[in-house]
Design brief:
Layout: H1 3-15, E1 31-36, H2 43-47, H3 49-52, E2 55-58, E3 61-64, E4 67-70, H4 76-85, E5 90-92, H5 97-109, E6 114-119, H6 127-135, E7 141-146, H7 151-166, H8 171-184, E8 186-190, H9 195-199, H10 205-213, E9 219-223, E10 226-231, H11 236-253, E11 260-264, H12 268-278, E12 287-290, H13 293-299, E13 304-308
Parallel strand pairs: 1-2, 1-6, 6-7, 11-12
Antiparallel strand pairs: 3-4, 3-5, 8-9, 8-13, 9-10, 11-13
Helix pairs in contact: 5-6, 7-8
Length: 317
């Protein structure tokens, strides 16, 4: 069974357990989950009816040569790929507080009792701040979760929260599930060039300049919510081999079988090859998804990332 099939089956079991009619509510509070497009969630899962009813994904804007594009609204990956290849100016921005306000109010009108709003690290983006500003303006309880991470490290927190919400958990329990999942996740990634991270202000400018000058291919991570260096490697091939070794070592340290995701941008074949190499070390299918445009805008073409997530969550009740 694939990761996606497993998740959908769990949702159906939570929402439609034996003995309950399919259109009956779980009986617990109705808690919706809101996140941003940096979560890298597989579109197939987000679009499943069992998921879409509980989850809203707020798109994050990407600006390419002054033109604003919305993730999930425009074909941002195609435009971004060309923009990065041609060296155009690429910037990102947080969603507006107004967009969050409208999202929260819509969920309130749909009958939800509370919302858990889960976002990428507040040290990398003002998205958490925008969500908090919106939460203060609405009449429905909104619990904000700063995952202190990105990509599927954030996405696995969203998955855990949605399953807890479908299980009828209280808003505080849903938020706690998200925080636990985010805290359990590790991110390791490699970029062919540090230029985009330096231009976007996501790494120390001096480190970015000298790293590019010396052609260093560092393996990076997210630590305390910010990008941090793990090791300096001098060639791309050695960096990829070393990242794979670090992932395997981390998996072997765990007392459970983690969910695993491999992200890429512009190099899917390389990502699938890496996932195949890692496959013998995990019990479940490895999720391979493109990194969202709002992250690719900073990481650049050729990024490869591995997210070592928590175990697949158990039901709350």
């Amino acid at each position: 069974m694939s990761w996606l099939e497993d998740l959908v089956q769990r949702s159906r079991q939570l929402l439609h357990p034996a003995g309950r009619k399919p259109d009956e509510a779980s009986g617990g509070p109705r808690v919706a989950v809101v996140t941003d497009s940096a979560a890298s969630l597989p579109a197939e899962w987000a679009a499943e009816p069992e998921t879409a009813d509980w989850l809203r994904i707020v798109p994050m804007p990407v600006m390419i040569s002054g033109q604003i594009y919305g993730e999930g609204v425009d074909d941002v990956p195609a435009v971004l790929t060309i923009g990065l290849a041609e060296g155009k100016e690429v910037k990102t921005s947080r969603p507006s507080p107004g967009l969050f306000t409208r999202t929260y109010e819509e969920l309130q009108r749909q009958g939800y009792d509370a919302i858990v709003s889960i976002h990428l690290s507040g040290s990398l983006s003002g998205t958490v701040e925008a969500a908090a500003l919106a939460a203060a303006e609405v009449d429905i309880r909104v619990e904000i979760v700063d995952t202190r991470s990105v990509a599927m490290a954030e996405g696995f927190a969203v998955v855990a929260a949605v399953l807890a919400a479908q299980d009828g958990a209280e808003v505080s329990a849903v938020a706690e599930r998200a925080r636990e999942a985010a805290a359990a996740a590790d991110v390791l990634f490699y970029v062919p060039s540090l230029d985009q991270l330096r231009r976007g202000g996501r790494i120390n400018p001096a480190a970015g300049f000298f790293g590019s000058l010396l052609a260093i291919k560092p393996i990076l991570t997210i630590r305390d919510g910010a990008i941090a260096e793990v090791e300096k490697i001098r060639t791309a091939s050695k960096a990829l081999v070393r990242m794979q070794q670090l992932v395997v070592r981390r998996i072997e340290e765990l007392e459970y079988s983690p969910q695993l995701a491999v992200h890429y941008f512009g190099n899917e074949a390389e990502a699938r090859s890496l996932a195949e190499e890692l496959s013998p070390h995990v019990g479940d299918e490895i999720l391979v998804t493109a990194v969202p445009s709002v992250l690719a805008a900073h990481a650049g073409l050729g990024v490869l990332a591995v997210v070592i997530g928590p175990a697949m969550p158990d039901p709350v009740s």
